[in-house]
Write a structure and sequence with these properties.
By secondary structure, this protein is an alpha+beta fold. The chain has two domains: about 10-150, Fructose-1,6-Bisphosphatase, Chain A, domain 1; about 160-265, D-Maltodextrin-Binding Protein, domain 2 (3-Layer(aba) Sandwich). The protein contains eight helices and 15 strands. A hairpin with a 2-residue loop joins β8 and β9.
């Protein structure tokens, strides 16, 4: 069975305060990203090899405004952002930021990208925001709850892979050793959707899909997703069934009873 997940020791009032601030950060980021989305924009490639890892002024500008607000309101908090790295701090709080998750979708005019904002407390993600400002959907998760635009959301029942709709961003991103496990999940599931980036996790939390599996993720790709999935009633672990940590392999299910079946396949 999966290992028990650590519980937050933060007060309800502090959770509310920090959740509201996370939404303030998302508002600030949206003013930047929406100014560039579906508009001509310069694209840089961060990949030093043969791949393509795009970054734009939207990515950098959004992270800059988020970091400035954190520095202003919580100067003792740590920050870990995709574009500008780590700000060390003595505080047990650390904000983990991906200003535009799904930059490939962003530069292609597809509204499946999102701004990811997470707050870790002693290393555990306790608050997460998945914000898609173009279609005006904001998913917020915290210990014990999740909302879409302020309204509670729940995952849907689905206790067998045969009835499950599953997703991954791109199956070609799995390594040669990982791909057979995904192919088995695919063969046993009812339907698969690709290319959704962070939006796939939001859709699972809202009760429209059932499972997302990925590998090769960085902390800023995944930390915000975990509180949203868990808060909506789902489960999120690494491929061994433990807390995801920074390992890069993430499994998210809407119905926790589906977790063990999926893990058995991923562990093979």
């Amino acid at each position: 069975m999966p290992a028990p997940l650590p519980q937050s020791t933060l007060s309800d009032d502090l959770i509310k305060e920090l959740s509201a601030f996370a939404c303030t950060l998302a508002d600030a980021a949206a003013k930047v990203t929406l100014g560039y989305f579906k508009s001509p924009i310069g694209i840089d490639d961060k990949d030093d090899g043969d791949g393509f890892d795009p970054v734009t002024k939207a990515d950098r500008g959004a992270e800059e405004v988020i970091r400035a607000l954190i520095e202003e309101h919580y100067p003792d908090h740590g920050i870990f952002g995709e574009e500008f790295g780590i700000k060390e701090a003595s505080s047990p709080f650390e904000w983990v930021l991906d200003p535009v998750d799904g930059t490939r979708a962003f530069i292609s005019g597809l509204p499946t990208w999102g701004t990811l904002i997470a707050l870790r407390y002693n290393g555990e993600p306790v608050i997460g925001v998945i914000d898609q400002p173009y279609i005006r959907e904001r998913y917020l998760g915290w210990p014990g709850g999740a909302t879409l635009n302020g309204e509670p959301i729940r995952t849907r029942p689905c206790d067998t892979l045969e009835h499950a709709t599953i997703s991954t961003t791109d199956p070609d991103l799995f390594t040669a050793n990982e791909r057979p496990a995904f192919d088995t999940l695919l063969a046993k599931s009812r339907l698969v959707r690709y290319g959704l980036d962070c939006y796939a996790y939001a859709i699972v939390a809202a009760g429209h899909m059932d499972l997302v599996v990925e590998s090769g993720l960085k902390p800023y790709d995944m930390m915000a997703l975990i509180p949203v999935i868990r808060g909506a009633g789902g489960a999120a672990t690494n491929w061994e069934g433990d807390a995801p940590g920074d390992c890069g392999r993430l499994l998210a299910v809407g119905d926790p009873t589906l977790l063990e079946t999926a893990l058995d396949i991923l562990k093979e």
